[in-house]
Amino acid sequence: MTQVKFLGMIAVIIFFSAFTVNNSMSWQIAEGYSIKFAGTDAEGIFKTMSGDIQFDENNLDASSFSTSIDVASINTGNGMKNKHAVSPKWFDAEAYPAITFNSSKFAKSDTGYEVTGTLEIHGTKKEVSIPFTFSDNTFTGKFSVNRMDFGVGTMKGMSKKVSNEINLEISVPVTK
Amino acid sequence: MKNLLIHGVVAGLLSGIAGIIFLNIYIEAFGVDYSQIINIGSIMGSSIIGCMLMTLGYAALEKFNKQNLQGWLNILIAVLSFASIIGPIGMSLPLDIEFPEMFPGLVVPMHFFPALAFFAIYPFFKQVKS
Questions:
Q1: Which of residues 68-97 of B touch A (CB under 8 A)?
Q2: Residues A27, A30: Cα–Cα separation, whole Å
Q3: Which residue among A49, A55, A73, A75 is least crowded, i.e. fewest CB within 10 A of its CB?
Q4: How do the domains of chain A map onto residue ranges?
Q5: Signed CA dihedral, B26, B30, B35, B36: sign only
């Protein structure tokens, strides 16, 4: 009987410790995040994002990012450009309302970390690697994407003025 | 010449006052805030500068005795006022400002206020002169 109780206690401890590990990895996106993009003749921010962030510096294998950016929240500082950006000519927010990123692999790098995953923009999925740092409970990453790889805009007419290469700068403060 | 100068200053002040009234109505009606970009000082300053440029044109006609070209000058002023709306329509606001799409609705009408004020009070100053 004592043995049964002992085993029961161990089972309870293991069960709750699993939650402890899970809790220590789980982060909530806090206010004050920023998603900036900049290229020739195209500069702005996305104002709304959501996601599920599991990250433990000591357990990268169990870490995961699953984030979604609301395309309609784009702000270039110019009403006409905003309207243009969400139109079928560019992001087509009605058909593709979100930009998503789902991680598949984390690795340590010289400067911090690198996450590899699937980035989906405008209905096109592509595997990308994003270098990032994590300090003061804030994830910070800089990388660039080629808009033509995702079929965003064209290289005809006025759209030609916007560079193919778009630099992204992401800062996401998180809380437990 | 003195009359022209007074005409320009008065038109500039009236245009500025109209701009400030319009700014307050717009802010109240739509709940927007563009105070980082546009304020009472900038409205008053640009209105007076606009009207003084018109005064300069009128003064040039008077100096060279070409008053018969006044109609063309008025058309030029109207065309330039119209062309100047490209500025606010194409302008990119700081990214922390909400509702950038409503900014042209505030500023575009203001671009016509200096010419409107200048032409509106022109007969009073012409009468004084003659």
A1: 89-95, 97
A2: 9
A3: A73
A4: 27-175
A5: negative
pTM given for the model: 0.77
Question: What topology does CATH give the domain A27-175?
Answer: Lipocalin (2.40.128)
Residues in B touching A79 (Cβ below 8 Å): 99-104
Chain A residues with beta carbon closer than 8 angstroms to that of B103: 79
Q: Comparing C-alpha atoms, which of B21, B2, B3 is closest to residue B122?
A: B3
- Do the Cβ atoms of B97 and A77 come within 8 Å? yes
Are the beta carbons of A79 and B91 separated by less than 8 Å? no
> How is residue A73 annotated by DSSP?
G
Chain B residues inside the 8 Å CB shell of A43 = 92
User: Nearest CA to A176 among A23, A22, A16?
Assistant: A23
| pLDDT, tens only, A101-156 | 999 999 999 999 999 999 999 999 999 999 999 999 999 999 999 999 999 988 88
Q: Closest Cα of chain A to B32: distance in Å? A: 14
d(CA A173, CA A139): 6
**Chain A nearest C-alpha distance from B67 (Å):** 42
Among candidate residues B82, B61, B81, B89, the one with its CA nearest the CA of residue B73? B61
